[in-house]
Structures are given as structure tokens and as C-alpha cells.
Amino acid sequence: TDILFPPGKDALSKEGVTAISEVAKVLQLVEGRQVQVAGHTDNVPIKNAKFPTNWHLGAARAIAVTKILIDSGLDADRVSASSYADTRPADTNRTKEGRSRNRRIELILVPDLSLLPGSEELKNFADGQ
Question: How far apart are CA 92 and CA 102, in angstroms?
Fold first, then answer.
């Protein structure tokens, strides 16, 4: 929400940097998982030189959080960034409060898919075997 980013911006607030740095410490303890940072926006269109669309804004926010996670000690090879723009709202976009809840970052812990049953068959298929 707005604790991380002001509306239409990708620069983390001071409180946001502190919060993400604390989360990074916890994520360092979680072994065997990748972390995907997903950026979400409200549905208010944005169009400026820096952010031609909400997709760009969501991506920039995810990248900003990814950078703080890495700067706070999380291994860079464990982190990725993505944007969902306004396509997956958590709340209504009809109210100020709902739009505020939709401007968010989600941290998704991705399991090691190679440990799932059938993963060897999928790998062989992908390799053309």
C-alpha cells in the first residue's frame, strides 16, 4: 500500500525501505525457494515519459523492491520481478481505499519445481528425449 510507494511513483518511502529490509532478513532463512516480487497497480491510467502504462509502473515498483531485497543480503539469483499492473486487483477500484489496497507488492515464494513428482519426465520432454 501507500507505506511503500506514493501513488504513481516507484521510489520506496523510507518506511518502505525499512520494511522490505526486514523482510529480506526473514527470506534469507528460507532455503530452497526463489522469491518473485510482483508489482500491482490500481486501475487509474498512468501515461508519462517514465511510465507509459501501469505495466511499466508495476514493473518499476517490483524492481525497486527487488533491489532492496538484494541490497539487504538476499542472493540475487533467488529473486525475480514481474508486473501484473491492474489485472489482479485485491479490492475494488471504485473507492480510494480499494485503489490503495490494489497498489501493492506481493512476495511469492516459488518452490523448487525439480522436486515435484514427474519433473524428470518434464525435463526429458523439454530436452527432446
Answer: 8
Determine the residue type at 22: E
Residue 73's identity, in one-letter code, is: G
The pLDDT profile of the chain, 129 residues, written as one tens digit per residue, is 567 887 888 999 899 999 999 999 999 999 889 999 999 999 999 989 999 999 999 999 999 999 999 999 999 999 999 999 999 999 999 999 999 889 899 999 998 777 777 777 877 877 887
CB of 56 within 8 A of CB of 47? no
Query: Which strands form 79-85's sheet, in the order they lie side by side?
Result: 79-85, 34-40, 105-110
Nearest in space to 3 (alpha carbons), one of 100, 110, 122: 100
The bridge status of strand 105-110 relative to strand 79-85 is unpaired
